[in-house]
């Protein structure tokens, strides 16, 4: 009966973590470019009390085992695309495909995002550059900051589906900036680590980033005047939340029943 207490306790801990993951998804339902997560579980060590065997055409065809509960094994992020919403800003971009924008953070590390709601920041020398809402520099396909001269009319900026940037001068002529928005693919995007502020960080499991225009295995295009919304479905997450709550509840009842059985056993001496 003590085994049942610990087994049910592991189930409560696992479901509490599951609720934490679901709650984070619901909290980010309106976060631009957010990708939902799900918790995955594994069963724990088994105690084998009798093994299956065959000896001279006789024996026991099945095992006698009992497990010790469950534990969280991983969280898996779904990178399926969210809805694409029309905006009025020429600095809003949505990626159609599996790519990520490249961002230079203050610690000089390059990180990645699906959030294309960019802004214009003024540098110390009076130039203007493309940044995130936190002021982090957006990089081009050569990992250089995207900087605009003072004579560039930001409202006329145009970005092609392949990321090439241009603008219109005072005469209405289109002028190319010779820079392309950096969009990369990863061999294993599911290993990307979320670090907050809509950013992801790569590691040894993701593989090296590959510029989308050089990646023949996949294709990503950029849509200007659009933003990708979260891929969280409130209905799905609410159903998962109810299931997790019921699983937590039934595990707590297993603990209560085990406690009642222990109490009955303790009262046998009376």
TrEMBL record:
Report the superkingdom from the record. Answer: Bacteria
Which residues does the UniProt record annotate as the domain Flagellar hook protein FlgE/F/G-like D1?
94-167
Which residues belong to any copy of the Flagellar basal body rod protein N-terminal domain?
A: 7-35
What is one Gene Ontology biological process annotated in the Swiss-Prot or TrEMBL record? Answer: bacterial-type flagellum-dependent swarming motility
Outline the extent of the Flagellar basal-body/hook protein C-terminal domain.
224-268
Intracellular or extracellular location(s): Bacterial flagellum basal body
One GO cellular component from the entry? Answer: bacterial-type flagellum basal body, distal rod
Its keywords, alphabetically, are: Bacterial flagellum, Cell projection, Cilium, Flagellum
Query: Subunit structure, per the record?
Result: The basal body constitutes a major portion of the flagellar organelle and consists of four rings (L,P,S, and M) mounted on a central rod. The rod consists of about 26 subunits of FlgG in the distal portion, and FlgB, FlgC and FlgF are thought to build up the proximal portion of the rod with about 6 subunits each.
Record-stated family: Belongs to the flagella basal body rod proteins family.
Protein name in UniProt: Flagellar basal-body rod protein FlgG
Q: Which organism is it from?
A: Ruminiclostridium cellobioparum subsp. termitidis CT1112
């Amino acid at each position: 009966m003590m085994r049942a207490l610990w087994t049910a306790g592991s189930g409560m801990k696992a479901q509490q973590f599951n609720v934490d993951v679901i709650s984070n998804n619901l909290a980010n339902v309106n976060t631009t470019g957010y990708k939902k997560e799900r918790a995955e579980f594994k069963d724990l060590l088994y105690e084998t009390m009798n093994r299956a065997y065959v000896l001279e055409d006789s024996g026991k065809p099945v095992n006698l085992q009992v497990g010790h509960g469950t534990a969280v094994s991983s969280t898996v992020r779904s990178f399926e695309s969210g809805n694409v919403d029309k905006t009025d800003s020429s600095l809003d971009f949505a990626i159609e495909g599996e790519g990520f924008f490249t961002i230079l953070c203050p610690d000089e590390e390059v990180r990645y995002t699906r959030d294309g709601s960019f802004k214009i920041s003024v540098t110390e020398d009076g130039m203007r550059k493309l940044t995130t809402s936190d002021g982090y520099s957006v990089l081009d396909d050569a990992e250089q900051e995207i900087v605009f001269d003072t004579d560039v009319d930001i409202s006329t900026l145009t970005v092609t589906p392949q990321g090439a940037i241009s603008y219109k001068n005072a005469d209405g002529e289109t002028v190319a900036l010779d820079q392309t928005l950096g969009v990369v693919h990863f061999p294993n995007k599911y290993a990307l680590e979320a670090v907050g502020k809509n950013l992801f960080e790569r590691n040894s499991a993701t593989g090296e980033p590959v510029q989308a225009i050089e990646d023949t295995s996949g294709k990503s295009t950029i849509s200007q005047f659009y933003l990708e919304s979260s891929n969280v479905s409130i209905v799905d997450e609410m159903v998962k939340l109810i299931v997790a709550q019921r699983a937590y509840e039934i595990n707590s009842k297993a603990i209560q029943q085990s406690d009642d059985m222990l109490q009955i056993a303790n009262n046998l001496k009376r």
